[in-house]
Design goal:
Blueprint: E1 7-11, H1 19-31, E2 38-42, E3 58-61, H2 77-89, E4 94-97, H3 99-107, E5 111-114, E6 120-128, H4 130-133, E7 144-151, E8 153-157, E9 162-168, E10 175-178, E11 183-186, H5 194-203, H6 205-208, H7 215-224, H8 230-233, H9 235-249
Parallel strand pairs: 1-2, 1-3, 3-4, 4-11
Antiparallel strand pairs: 5-8, 6-7, 6-9, 9-10, 10-11
Helix pairs in contact: 2-3
């Protein structure tokens, strides 16, 4: 693994969605890596035959814009689940949030559902499970911390292959690790700060605003339900720090040998 990390960011947004670039910038900022370290593959627009993980040190997956794994109906749904299983089987380090989290759950045989009581828009408190206390990544966090969220679909049953790491009051499954794989995923968005999530709320206002609200009312409401999430925002940097530690442990071969 090179000391200059290369990350493949898998996205799931319509071509022309301003959140494509916004998402890439958020992942770069939270990992503290330059944008040049990232290559993007947009599953909603790029040819699945062009998907290739060769040469990348890790993969990351973000949100989905207008796509839902519960509703389905988009022509790359099964391809995306197939690619997810291929990545997991290849044991490539992976950090996934929101849509990426849900794709891992569904690809491994878990169940997703749309339930208004589980939907979370804004900043919410996350509570770690006992298993998370022993996790090399989540064990560094306080037992409770704030995180940014924006989802209508939720995991309601986890397959045996996943370790349950975190919950919120509304949504039982907020973070997972794949057993025996360098793969973690969160329903929440550790790549987003308070301001990032407000910008996303504004971009997808049609999905988030309450009935009868105009723009100003909706944004005033959004500012009320968002707050900083510093502990959550440190997760991606910790994940990358672990990639560097892994690289340092890999022995180099002397060219003269």
């Amino acid at each position: 693994m090179s000391s200059k990390l290369r990350i493949l960011l898998i996205q799931a947004r319509e071509a022309g969605d301003p959140m494509l670039d916004h998402e890439l910038g958020a992942f770069a900022a939270r990992t503290q890596l330059p944008r040049e370290a990232f290559t993007s593959f947009n599953a909603a627009d790029d040819d699945v035959d062009d998907f290739d993980t060769a040469g990348f040190d890790a993969l990351m997956v973000g949100g989905s814009g207008d796509f839902s794994l519960v509703d389905g109906g988009f022509d790359w749904h099964e391809d995306f689940l197939y690619l997810t299983r291929q990545v997991l089987n290849a044991r490539i380090p992976l950090f996934a949030s929101c849509f990426g989290f849900q794709s891992i759950v569904q690809a491994l045989g878990g169940t997703l559902a749309r339930d208004e009581d589980r939907a979370e828009i804004g900043t919410f408190q996350i509570t770690l499970t006992d298993a998370a206390q022993e996790d090399p990544l989540f064990g560094e966090l306080p037992r409770q911390f704030d995180a940014q969220l924006g989802h209508n679909d939720s995991a309601v049953h986890l397959p045996e292959a996943l370790v349950h790491l975190a919950s919120s009051e509304c949504c039982e499954y907020q973070a997972i690790r794949v057993k025996d794989r360098p793969v973690v995923a969160t329903q929440f968005h550790p790549e987003l700060t308070l301001n990032d999530n407000l910008e996303r709320f504004e971009c997808y206002l049609k999905n988030y605003k309450r009935p009868g609200q105009d723009f100003e009312q909706a944004m005033a409401y959004a500012r009320q339900i968002h707050r900083p999430s510093p502990h959550s925002c440190g997760l991606l940097h910790s994940f990358v720090a672990d990639l560097h530690r892994r690289a340092e442990r890999i022995p180099t071969v002397d060219a003269a040998e």
